[in-house]
């Protein structure tokens, strides 16, 4: 059973959503929707930092990595996008080398959209369990650079931020143990993921039902009931979708951590881990608490993962 050894994050400076209206081509109605209805206020942006620098800043915050580099077997890039840098640049390989992890196998995991961060933990769970070395660890890197117009926002859903997170995991462990995981993919046969009007309509039809499905499936795999979950750490997409989801699932609003939504924007796969760092640092998450991370990716991929702190 995999556990989180440590989670670190890097949150660049922010820009108000209003300052992004012209660059994103938002009309006044869209601007009001994002700010007044969806609860977005500030978006993490780092125009002077490359993706490599963003990922390194998060990874260098891992105190548990220093002196334990030799224990890291895998460096895994959980990508919300298939391509995050122009060829032949590889932020993953540069980060691996900068951290002194050249001996570790490096690879990327993609195609689950912003749910790929949770998929990366599941992949590392399989690899570390098969290795048989109880001291072995894997480093997962999440978060991305919004370097193309396509990556800067999801039409009428959310605005993307450039916050990053680094997650160090191991097999076994007594703290932050992963208890259950579920994912579902309801992609289109034609492979279209861009949020045009037709795709957006399809997504709206299934979103809440499938989100509830994976949350309940992960909780069941963990051997728990939904009432046993003390805290839900969501992806920071928008306030409306999570208010509706909490009502559908019967989750009290006090169990839904949404504090970072107005401060960061939607930071791809890094959101649940950014939220984890906040609740640990703020003393919200207590020893023994069961918490649930969730995320949804373009292409209609839904995922949920249960941990015990």
UniProtKB/TrEMBL annotation:
One Pfam short name: ACP_syn_III_C
Gene Ontology MF: a single term: beta-ketoacyl-acyl-carrier-protein synthase III activity
The keyword Nucleus is assigned to this record: no
Chain ranges of the Beta-ketoacyl-[acyl-carrier-protein] synthase III C-terminal domain: 221-308
Source organism: Saccharopolyspora gloriosae
GO BP annotations listed: secondary metabolite biosynthetic process
Gene3D superfamilies: 3.40.47.10
InterPro entries: ACP_syn_III_C, Thiolase-like
Record keywords: Acyltransferase, Transferase
Enzyme Commission number(s) of this protein: 2.3.1.180
Descriptive protein name: 3-oxoacyl-[acyl-carrier-protein] synthase-3
